[in-house]
Amino acid sequence: MIGGTLAEPKRVGTEEDAPRVVWIVLNWNGRDDTLECLASLLVAGISPRDIWVVDNGSDDGSLTAIEGAYPSVRLFVNEENLGYCEGNNVALRRAVRDDVDYIGVLNNDTRVAPDFVEPLLSALDDDTVGVVGPRILFADPPHPIWCAGARLGFHQNLSELRGFEEPNDHRYNVPEDVDYVPGAALLAPHETWERVGLFEPIYFAYMEDVDWCCRVRAAGWRVRYVPTSVVYHKASGSTGGGYSAQRKYMTACNEVHFLRRHGTLKLWAAFWLLDVGLWPLVFVRAILTGRGRGALGKLKGLWDGLRGRRVAAPRRARRRSKS
User: Fold this and answer.
1) Using CB atoms within 10 A of its CB, is residue 10 exposed (0-12), middle (13-18) or buried (19+)?
2) Is residue 74 predicted with pLDDT exceeding 70?
3) CA distance 56 to 317
4) Any residues with CB less than 8 A from the CB of 293 and at least 6 apart, and which?
5) Residue 202: which of 245, 262, 273 has the closest Cα?
């Protein structure tokens, strides 16, 4: 395995002269995953004061469990599900205002290797790099690659996760510039967040990380994949899995919003030919593999996106706000 060893974890942010690195974890009805994620951050040497959890209107007992197990972490409570973008933005605004040196975002269904932080910080020593992302592996053995950075181009859904489902061997061992790093796990300096801004709420969830990294590159910085930093990811737990109707709807709808902001001739061609033109073939294949609802969700998302509609959240019980 590259990275993710069981070596003694480095202590991050405990020395007075060490940079402060805050990690933001967004939770929405993911109590058990979030508790596991927080435990891994503590093993990695992250101080509880630098672990910020945002609860997005959960009704599964998450708040009680998190406060009981980790009373020292900082907890932000939203009254309802604000989505991935605005949910994270609640804590990102505070981190930017507090002038935190580095701000990272982690999905709650991830767990980090004990030594994952130092390679990311080392890559950010180069001031031409605006954001970094780790090697992300599937959480289940034998831990194939989920993502080694990502690229935009002539692909379905406009983009491709590099190394997706490939074995975690010698492949993708070299640090590289990529088009974007997924929001499942990324780290950026304060200056990047301050100059580029936060996640764009129009997306609610999905494609916001692609948009944000495009803005980072437009500001003149590089986006860097760091293979010696390792994070494990359960992938799409909050939306029912990789080909769920909800996830395919959100992604498809937001593709259109992304194209209206960043679309090139190549990306628009990929959209019309691969996502719209080939949808009937995708639907037939989905029916044969029992994934017809996902294909229909994608079609509805494409249509709604072209009509200018936005992804909306299901209504949940309202909660008090605290931070």
Assistant:
1) middle
2) yes
3) 11
4) 244, 245
5) 262
Q: What is the dihedral of CA 257, 261, 262, 266, to 10 degrees?
A: 60
Indicate if the pLDDT at residue 192 is higher than 90. Answer: yes
Q: Which domains does the chain have, with CATH numbers?
A: 21-236 (3.90.550.60), 245-306 (no CATH)
Q: Does residue 251 register a pLDDT over 70?
A: yes
Question: Which helix (H) or strand (E) segment is 76 a member of?
Answer: strand 74-78
Q: For the residues 76-92, what does the mean pLDDT come to?
A: 96
Contact 252, 259 (CB under 8 A): no
Q: What does each C-alpha distance from 106 to 25, 33, 57, 131 come to in angstroms? A: 5, 12, 18, 14
Residues ≥6 apart with Cβ < 8 Å to 290 = none
Cβ 233 vs Cβ 122: under 8 Å: no
Mean pLDDT of 46-50: 97
Residue with tokens 């040497």: 45
Residue 123, φ and ψ in degrees, nearest 5: -65, -30
Band of residue 75 on the pLDDT scale cut at 50, 70, 90:
very high
pLDDT at 275 over 60: yes
